[in-house]
């Protein structure tokens, strides 16, 4: 729709892949057509988790993934009326903010005990919750929707809320159903090696559908982020073109504003070990997670600076012991510390300055 079709590329619309036969090297689509392949890239992404809730199919109930979802929600926006949002993650916060700005009264229903629990620790979540409550936003924690009727939601706790709109933001699940009996190894997502190749030769995968090395946690994880997906796609394409290149892995990171509150999270920011350093006031919250001087993660709330530099330090596993104080003071900048950062480092690393 938005981009011209590249020369030499054929785009087939309305043909969903329903089966991959890795032995015969064939892909079957929903129209019954079968396409042979020499090399295959699977980039099927992920879809919203569909709630198993009675009434979830009512016309004023939505999940968020595609533009059509937004268009559907717009039809139900009524200033002064209530929207109930199930989930307290990134997508839920953004849609909640948008609907609040459009004049709707917002209630979050969260299964966990705090908002943004996947990226924030308790102190940081508390700061966000205070901002929301000051705006008159209701947060119902440790509860979930079990039924939706016309104009009302029913919670597990017995509580009820009248509403004109319900939005579920309960995360996403990799689209791997069509790979049943394909022989491709799947855990939570498709398992790939450092070349983005699956366990079957010449079949590659990239994006939200795959799990790759998480540099910080040092295990296989799905970091469903656009920059990560783009890099994985590049790595897969190079290897498919017989240009060997290795994917080093990814780090989960987010830069966002939640109801006007700037937030930066990277890596193991929500963890409380191995070592934690904090600094906090009414205007900001800063937390560093370290392991023997190596930065493993952080949470910054308030004025944000040098996010790209922090990501670089985490990816390169550099010792930042002498920089902890300026980091917590939010005065740490590449221009001030470049000579100390790269002093004595191997030439190969120096050439990768951020």
Describe the protein's topology:
Layout: E1 17-21, E2 26-29, E3 34-36, E4 40-42, E5 46-48, E6 61-63, H1 67-74, E7 82-86, H2 90-101, E8 105-110, H3 122-134, E9 138-141, E10 145-149, E11 152-155, E12 160-162, E13 165-168, E14 172-174, E15 190-191, E16 203-205, E17 210-214, E18 219-221, H4 226-240, E19 253-258, E20 261-267, E21 275-280, E22 285-291, E23 294-301, H5 307-316, H6 324-328, H7 334-341, H8 347-350
Parallel strand pairs: 4-16, 6-13, 7-8, 7-13, 8-9, 15-17
Antiparallel strand pairs: 1-2, 2-3, 5-14, 10-11, 11-12, 17-18, 19-20, 20-23, 21-22, 22-23
Percent range of helical residues: 10-25%
CATH topology of the largest domain: FAD/NAD(P)-binding domain
Question: Would you tell me the overall average pLDDT?
Answer: 92
Distance from first to last alpha carbon: 35 Å
Q: What is the 3D form? A: flat
Mind telling me which CATH architecture of the largest domain this is?
3-Layer(bba) Sandwich
Q: What is the CATH H-level superfamily of the largest domain?
A: FAD/NAD(P)-binding domain
Query: Strands of the largest sheet, in order across it?
Result: 6-13-7-8-9
Number of domains: 4
Number of helices: 8
Per CATH, the class of the largest domain reads Alpha Beta
- Radius of gyration, whole Å: 23 Å
Count of beta strands: 23
Structural class: alpha/beta
Q: Classify the beta-strand content into a percent band.
A: 25-35%
Low-confidence stretches: 347-354
* Largest pleated sheet: 5 strands, parallel
